[in-house]
Amino acid sequence: MRSLPLPLALTARLAPVAVLATAGWALSSGPDTSPAAKDKTPPDTTNRSASAPATQAATKTYAAAPAPCKALAGKTVTSLVPGAKAPGKEIPSTDTAVRRTCSWNALKGYDYRWLDVSFEVMETDDAARKSYKERVADRGGAVPGLGDSAYSVVNLTTEDKQQTREGTVLVRAANALVVITYNGSDFESKKAPGTTEINKGAIKAAKEAVAALQDG
Predict the structure, then answer these.
(1) Cα 54–59–64 angle (5° rounding)?
(2) How far apart are CA 107 and CA 196, in angstroms?
(3) Which of 169, 194, 198, 215 has its CA 20 to 30 A from that of 153?
């Protein structure tokens, strides 16, 4: 996906309930033993459900993933990834209704930035909640006020003396997950941008992406 020869560290990236009602009957004067009674067939009440509560199939808040390359404003893209083309590049997916990802990356001078915005739509809120918990584990910190739950984490890696700092924000909104990956390097100083810069940038992108999900 990249045209630049970059360090290896920069190239890695959710039944209806059936209710059966049965009825019995009793005769106050004792059982009827007449011949006619012997021929009587008890009424079929197995399909009666008038008094049973109605059930409905669960509906999904989000039926499909929105277009990821339109999730962020152009000015947001250029501020986070200077020199990048605002339209971005959507990554091929085997099922675009379930998962869609858009990437932006650019080298301006010696400063390199990479940004991914990914939407994952699941069948139920429970499925999304489970996936979220599995990914969060004990890493990072909570991001209050973002979706139903959100966390961010920033990591620093070094390869061939070149530092890369990467921030990840994971958000659960009902049955969908929004994943932001944002990283950067300085190829002149071989240093990485600060933790605050990367974390704030990733959270900014996450807020816009969640808004796009809700509007879509």
Answers:
(1) 165
(2) 20
(3) 215
